[in-house]
Write a structure and sequence with these properties.
The chain has about 300 residues and is an alpha/beta fold. Helices cover about 30% and strands about 25% of the residues. The chain has one domain: Spore Coat Polysaccharide Biosynthesis Protein SpsA, Chain A, CATH 3.90.550.
């Protein structure tokens, strides 16, 4: 079974201030998500699954789905607060999604083979999609053979504020051993730095391997993430009903520590970019224009 691409597009982008997944980044009305689908298609993917909010379906189809569906098979699944473990009750005071692990779990009934997972609002680059597709093709019948694409931290920073990044530790075999979430990393005159208390900044190497939530999994991962989310819902959520989230990297980290999986780190030399803040948009538009001018992408993607 050929690998499929799963795109998490249910978030609203609170820092950005709107549904940035459908915001255009060039004069041809292309969105960042369009570039991801385009790169995935030429890497070998033949199907994309969009995880969205049910109430955004018509808007999302009009802005993205209807155009890309002419080139690649499209399916939609919904991340919903009512999609909880059997026998559990819904907390009426909860209004925000349960996190990225819950988003991926939403696709458990439509994915039956190897799959890649990405964010809707991140530009990953051509190289990343080719590497992750080739890896998934090579391990598609195995269990617990996962991968991620890592970027150099310096290629993922913005000048317009702090960012959250998963800083990765990699062993001599090229496998992920640990991810440390740094929630406030800034670009400095000397490189980069992070803070844990909001005041004191600690330098961090710009060559640090960084996760941008581009993962590759075999089908068995969906059972694992369902179990992990069930534990989260029963054991963690009751302590912080309104805000607690179950994050995809935490589930992966737990599997690595328990010996259930290995995660090969595939590195990309491409520059990641995204619109974390509204001020990022002009830079992104300039980068997109340069890539089109140099022939990496056609003038109009779809």
């Amino acid at each position: 079974m050929k690998p499929v691409l799963v795109i998490m597009a249910a978030g609203m982008g609170s820092r950005y201030g709107g549904l940035k997944q459908i915001d255009t980044v060039d004069d041809e009305n292309d969105k960042i998500i369009d570039f991801s689908v385009f790169d995935a298609k030429r890497a070998g993917f033949e199907k994309v699954i969009f995880i969205i909010k049910r109430e955004n379906l018509d808007l999302f189809k009009e802005a993205v789905g209807d155009s890309v569906s002419k080139s690649i098979e499209v399916e939609y699944v919904f991340q919903e607060l009512t999609d909880i473990p059997e026998g559990e009750t819904v907390y009426p005071e909860r209004t925000k999604p349960y996190g990225t692990a819950h988003a991926v779990r939403s696709a458990r009934n439509v994915v039956s083979g190897p799959f890649a997972v990405i964010n809707a609002d991140d530009f990953y680059g051509k190289e990343a999609f080719q590497k992750i597709y080739d890896y998934l093709e090579s391990v598609k019948d195995e269990h617990g053979k996962y991968c991620m694409v890592g970027y150099s931290l310096g290629n993922t920073l913005t000048l317009n504020g702090s960012v959250s990044r998963g800083i990765c530790s990699v062993d001599n075999a090229g496998n992920l051993t640990d991810i440390t979430e740094r929630t406030k990393i800034i670009k400095t005159d000397d490189g980069a730095a992070y803070t844990e208390n909001g005041t004191d900044y600690i330098p961090i190497s710009e060559t640090s391997v960084t996760s941008m939530n581009m993962w590759g999994f075999t089908a068995d991962f969906l059972e694992e993430i369902d179990s992990a989310f069930t534990r989260f819902y029963k054991e963690e959520l009751p302590h912080n009903v309104e805000k607690a989230e179950c994050f995809l990297p935490f589930v992966v980290d737990e599997m690595i520590r328990s010996g259930k999986a290995t995660v090969k780190v595939l590195t990309s030399s491409d520059r990641w970019f995204g619109v974390t803040y509204k001020e990022d948009k002009q830079y992104v538009k300039e980068q997109i224009a340069a890539l089109k001018d140099s022939g990496v992408y056609p003038k109009k993607l779809f």
